[in-house]
Amino acid sequence: MARRILPPLSGLGEGFGAPKEGKKRAKGDFRGIKLSNETHRSTTDPEALLARKSNAHPAQLSYRGHVLMDNRHDLILDCRVTQATGTGERDAAKEMAADLAGAHQKTLGADKNYDTKGFVAEMRRIGVTHHVAQNTARSGGSAIDGRTTRHVGYGKSINARRGIEKVFGWLKAFGGLRQFKLRGQDNVSAVFGLHVIAYNLIRLGNLLKPAMEAL
Question: Average pLDDT per run of 10 along the chain, which is 215 residues long?
């Protein structure tokens, strides 16, 4: 599981904020104006929300992109685009995990952001083994314990989940999804899904190449 902020082309200058009284501002100049999703909304893309990748990055109008990857072959099994809310990543993960086909035992590897009691409880309810990285620095400690971490498969899942970075790296570097040129969650989701399909086709070609060359 992984998620990334997907900034659309629309900028903060479109429908956000208002200049201070008596002061002329250039278009898109919002220095000194506090912006938040509770008080401001873009007039061109009202579904996009302000979000930041980290404290070192500025807040941008964004969506969150989520992918579910098969750890054995690095193929994408499912993808979602949600609004950039604080719980969007876990909500999308719950939906994608519940939609996994088959009656076999399933495991789900994820980073520390998924180490919450609510997420772990939902994975147990739907019968998915939760291999999430422990967030021991969180108030109350990690939501998982030795019953999960003692197994060899837990360590393998934690190591394998890092392969998701290659997916997002390809989507941004070769797929051109560093910034979207469309507005609206449905449009962004459609483009994101098409690029995920393209990634899978290229990945399948690389997986099948040794067998094809041996013929």
Answer: 52 43 55 70 83 77 89 90 88 91 86 90 91 85 87 86 86 84 89 93 91 82
Q: In the chain, how many domains are there?
A: 1
Could you write out the DSSP letters of every residue in 79-101? EEEEES-TTHHHHHHHHHHHT--
| pLDDT at residue number 205 | 93
Quote the domain boundaries for residue 93: 1-215
**Chain center to CA of 111:** 11
φ, ψ of residue 103 to 5 degrees: the values are -100, 5
> 143-149: long-range contacts at Cβ-Cβ below 8 A with a sequence spacing of 24 or more?
143/115, 143/116, 143/117, 143/119, 144/115, 144/120
Burial class (CB in 10 A: 0-12, 13-18, 19+), 106: middle
